[in-house]
Write a sequence for this structure.
């Protein structure tokens, strides 16, 4: 778990880091919330690799966790379902990264 003033799962934190790095998370096939959901219900309409490429690695199920804490926001100008870092998310993530770097320096 990664602790802000609240806790989010490690998977959600990794997604948040990816959104911060890439600038956005885009989901073109939101009827499949996860990779497992896609595998179990897709009937071979596309390859798993294609699904992951079109859907930010199949992480749509994690978005609610980030939205709940105002870490990301919906980008209403995008054609597909897309999320960007919120200002709150940028600020909190910056503080967490700083804290993690300081903890790492103490162990070196």
């Amino acid at each position: 778990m990664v602790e802000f003033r609240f806790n989010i799962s490690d998977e959600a934190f990794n997604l948040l880091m990816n959104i911060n790095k890439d600038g956005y998370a885009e989901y073109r096939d939101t009827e499949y919330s996860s990779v497992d959901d896609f595998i179990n219900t897709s009937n071979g309409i596309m390859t798993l690799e294609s699904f992951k490429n079109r859907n930010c690695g199949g992480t749509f199920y994690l978005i609610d966790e980030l939205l709940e804490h105002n870490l990301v926001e919906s980008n209403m100008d995008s054609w597909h379902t897309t999320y960007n870092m919120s200002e709150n998310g940028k600020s909190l993530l910056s503080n967490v990264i700083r804290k993690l770097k300081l903890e790492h320096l103490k162990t070196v």
User: Anything to note?
Assistant: The chain has five helices and five strands. Helices lie at 10-22, 35-41, 48-54, 63-68, 87-107. The radius of gyration is 15 Å. The first strand starts at residue 2 and ends at 3.
